Structures are given as C-alpha cells and as structure tokens.
Amino acid sequence: ERGVVSVCGGRSATVILKEDGSVSLWGNTWANVEAALTGGVVSVCGDNSDDFAALKSDGSVVCWGMWYDGLNTGPEMARLTSGVVRLSATEDGFHAEKEDGEMVAWW
C-alpha cells in the first residue's frame, strides 16, 4: 500500500494507518468498525490479544478486535469519547492520556 504512516500487528491481524487518516485492516480483525476508520485517525495500536485501538482527530477512541467484536463497551469507553491526546498498548490492554492529564486504562 502507498502512503503508509504506521503498521501495527497482532497475532493474526495487521492494521495500517495511511497518510489520509484512513485505516486498512488485514487478517482476522473481528471488526465491524470500518465506517469509523475511513478518515480522521491519527494513531493506532494493538495489544498481544489481537485487540486494537485508534485515536481519532476529534479526541475519541475506537476499539475493536478479539474481545471487542467491533464494539466500544465497558465503563471506560464513556471517558474516551473526547479529549484523548495519546494512546498506548500494553500486553493485555490500553492506556489513554486525556488533555486534562487524566489517564484511562482498560483491557
């Protein structure tokens, strides 16, 4: 693919962030999130369980993968609809830093 900014891989899936802010999903991504990833994505990351997260330019986070099945679920997700400035993955989960300094962790 052309215009690749970053590549993030899991055990059986790969996520590619492109210059235009869109994301390509390869492999077993367990996703129903393609519509949310057609633009405005600024970073992507994944854990070791084939779960992925994308930070969008509006400060929201989209999660998908083996445990998410294309859904943003759990009490943490309500805190990730805006204001996120940084996203990282651990072996089994994710961390988000919000613009007010709050840290949100989920797995």
Structure characteristics:
3-stranded antiparallel sheet, mainly beta, 107 residues
Structure notes:
This protein is mainly β and 107 residues long. The strands form three sheets. It has a three-stranded antiparallel beta sheet with strand order 1-2-3, with no helix packed on it.
The beta-strand count equals 9
The portion of residues forming beta strands comes to over 45%
Main structural class: mainly beta
Count the DSSP helices: 0
Distance between the termini: 30 Å
Give the CA-based shape: globular
Helix content: under 10%
Mean pLDDT: 88
Q: Write down the Rg.
A: 12 Å
Order of strands, widest sheet: 1-2-3
In short:
The chain has 107 residues and is mostly beta strands. It has strands at residues 4-9, 13-18, 23-27, 41-46, 51-56, 61-65, 84-89, 94-98, 103-106.
